Amino acid sequence: MKFKWWYGALILALLLAISSPLASSSPDGLERVAEDKGFIGAALEPFFKILPDYVIPCVTNEALATILAGIVGTLILFGIGYGLARLLRAKGEA
Questions:
Q1: Rounded to two decimals, what is the model's pTM?
Q2: Which of 12, 35, 68, 77 has its CA 20 to 30 Å from the CA of residue 5?
Q3: DSSP for 19-65, written as a single string
Q4: How many CB atoms lie within 10 A of CB 70?
């Protein structure tokens, strides 16, 4: 089996997801700007939440819930990207 660059990218993304609880507990940049500029209350709720507040709801340990949410989110996005790349390759566009 030949090592492909995206194996490394997936491993790196999963390592970042696992280390995510070590990141700052401050709100992300967009949320911080919305708070500072006073329009955080104008935000609309999404139609559905797959991973509300970046945690798995049924896991009580907050760090573990965040790590699992990061892994699930990474795998979902990787799957979408991989599937799209295969679809475009099959059509001869990539």
A1: 0.70
A2: 68
A3: TGGGS-SSPPHHHHHHHHHT-GGGPPPPS--SSGGGS-TT--SHHHH
A4: 22
Q: Rounded to whole angstroms, how far apart are CA atoms 51 and 89?
A: 31
Which tens digits make up the pLDDT trace of 45-94? 888 887 887 788 888 988 888 889 889 989 999 999 999 989 998 888 65
CA-based nearest residue to 74, from 22, 36, 18, 27: 18
How far apart CA 18 and CA 31 sit, in angstroms, is 22
Report the C-alpha gap between 34 and 13 in whole angstroms.
Answer: 27
Asked if residue 51 lies in contact with residue 72, where contact means CB atoms within 8 angstroms, the answer is yes
As given in the structure block, the two tokens for residue 35 are: 């708070």
Structure tokens at 87: 């679809």
Q: Is 70 in contact with 54 (CB distance < 8 Å)?
A: yes
Q: Would you call 8 helix, strand, or coil by DSSP?
A: helix
